[in-house]
Please model this.
Amino acid sequence: MRDSRRFSSYFIPTLKEDPREAEIPSHKLMIRAGMIRRLASGVYEFLPLGWKVVRKIEAIIREELNAIGAQEIIMSALQPKELWEESGRWELYGPELMRLKDRGGREFCLGPTHEEVVTRIVAENIKSYRQLPFSLYQFQMKFRDEIRPRFGIMRAREFYMKDSYSFDLTEEGCRNSYDKHYEAYKKIFTRCGLDYAIVEADTGNIGGEYSHEFMVLSSIGEEAVVVCSCGYGANTEMASYSIVEKSSDLEESSEEKEPVEVNTPGLSSIEEITGFMKMPAERFIKTLIYKTEKGLIAALIRGDAELNERLLKAAVGVEDLTMASPEEIQEATGAPLGFSGPLGIKVPIYADTEILSMKNAVSGANIKDYHLKNINPGRDFTPEWSGNLRLVRAGDLCPECSSELKILRGIEVGHTFLLGNRYSAPMQANYTDEKGDEKEIVMGCYGIGVSRLAAAAIEQHHDEYGIIWPTAIAPFEAVIIQIADDAESAAAGLYADLKEEYDILWDDRKESPGVKFKDAQLIGIPVQMILGKQFLKDGRVEVVFRSTGEKQYLLPEEIAGILKKHLRGK
Model:
C-alpha cells in the first residue's frame, strides 16, 4: 500500500476558483483547499485534510480536559422527547430543535446539546456524596435547524462539538469546577493560536446562573463584543456602562418650548422622520410597545440607541417579553405602529436614563401621521421607572475602570455555563449527604464548537494566497515539494529522516512547479521544503515559512534543527 502522506495518494481535491456559494474567506478556502464539500444547505462533509485539522483541535482539547480530571464518554445523538419534557425545554428550545418520530410514533430529537441525557445518566447512577465531584465530556456531531445556514461550517445545521459537564456537591464546588474549565479553555484557545476575548454572556435557553463566551476576534464575526483595556468584556446584551449624569446638549435651546404637532404622513421610521424634519436621531424619543405577562408596557430610548431587552426584562420584572402586535399598539396608543409616543399613553413607561436629560425632543403623537416636537420629560410625562435600558455604544465608559469601551466583532467558539440546579432539580439528580439528607447535584456545562473553531482560525489566519495555519492545528507541519525529477531520491531520503518526528506531506505529483507552490500556499502548511534548481546546483533545500514568507537555503542535515526551532519552539 502506498504511503498516504504522499500528495499523489492523498485525497486532496483542490480547486483553482472560489466556489460561487461561498461568502467568507474560511468557507472559500476550506472548499478550495479540499477540506470540505457541501451535501445540502448547512450540511458539509469533512474530507481527509479538513478532518485532520478537526482531530488536531480535538487532541488539544482532550489533553487539557484530561489534565483537569474530566473523563471522556459518548452519548446518543438520538434523544427521546420525554427527557426534554422533564427539563421543560421541548417547547422552550423552539424550531431549531431537529424533531422526528420513529415507526411507532414515538417522538425524538437529534441532540443540539446533551444536558438532559447526561443528567439522566447521573441521576440513575449517583446516590452518595462519596461519588462526587466529577466531570464528563464527549466529542460528537450536533444538530440545529438553523433558519438561515450560512458561511459554510461556521453556521451549519450539523456541526462537531465538544460538550462537557461538571457535577458537584455545593455551589462553591461547582464554581471551582467552572474555574477549572475556564482556565482549561484559555489554554486550549491559546494553543490553537487564536486571538480571542472572554466576555460575559446571557445563559439563553441553556439556563443557569451565569456564563462566559470565548470569542475569536474577526471582522466577519456575527456577534458584537464589548471590551475594555482593563480586561472587562461582555457581549452587547450583557454589557453595562457607567451612567454619567449630565445635561443634554442636543436641545435647540435651554428654554422648554410648548409641544407642536407636525404632520408626517406615512413616515413612521426614525430614518424617515429624521430626514423629513432635518433633525438628528439623538433628538428623537423612540417609544417601543412590548407585551409581557404583566400586560403591555412602553420602553423609551433615544432615537440613535438600541434597546437591551435583557435590561428591560429585569426592570419590569418579567420573563416573557415580545413586541406588541399592531392591534395591541393601536389599543394602547390610539395610533398605528410607528406613531407611538409617551404623552397620554395608557401603559406603564420605562425610560432609559438618557431620556430624562432630553429637552424639546421629538416623539410620536399617538395620532396617525403625526409627531410631536418639544417634548420634555418631567413636564409632559413621568416614567414609571428610569435607568440603563440601551445597548452599549463604542465610547461609553467601562463600568469597572471608566475607560472608553470598544466594540469588536467576534465568532463564538466556546461557551461556559454555571447551571446550578437548572437540570438536577426537575430531573431529580440528587445525592445523599453525610447526614443522610437528600440534596440536589450542582452542575456546570461547557461547550466548544470544534468544527467552527477550525473555520474561525482561518478567518484570523489567511492571505490572498490561502490559509496560514497556526502550527498546532495545521493539517501537516511541513511539506516537501519535489520540483526537479533528479531530486526524487533526495526527497525520499529527507522524507524518511523527518516523518517520524514531524507530520510531513511529500508532494511527489507530476505537476508543474506553479501548481505545487499554489497548492502549498492554499492549504497553508507552515513550512515548505523545496527541492528544485538550487538543490541541483549546490545541494541546498529552499525552506519557506508560510506565516512570514521568510526563505532559507539549507543543507538536508540542517533542516531538522530549523524545524525543531520553528515547529517545536526548541
User: Anything to note?
Assistant: The two ends are 35 Å apart (CA to CA).
